[in-house]
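Q: Sequence in, structure out?
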Amino acid sequence: MPKQCFGKSHVPLSPAVRAGDFVYVSGQVPVGSDGLVVKGGIAEQTEQVLQNVKAALALAGCVMDDVVKTTVWLEDARDFGTFNTVYARHFPQDPPARTTVESRLMIDIKIEVEAVAYRPV
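A: Exactly. Output:
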């Protein structure tokens, strides 16, 4: 089965790509539908990022419960506790495997999240 790309972006990437039974979601940043970084701190930015992950998953017919792995980049490791509280609300049962690292990010944001989902076709 060839890969299938979903959605469009203003940069050279696909928001979501299906390869067999797996869906790969590109790193999502805290940008709202207006194209601007959401105002607020790590809680508000985490909420927006996870809403963006959810929307990218939906393009490929997936939901948050299908996520098996996430990778999270935090601009400041001291934000981990607040981030974790918001993240837990989006994965209340059987959360996916996760890697979280502190990293300088490409734009002035506090967080970026990518995801891998499993949903057999």
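Residues 28 and 83 are 15 Å apart (CA to CA).
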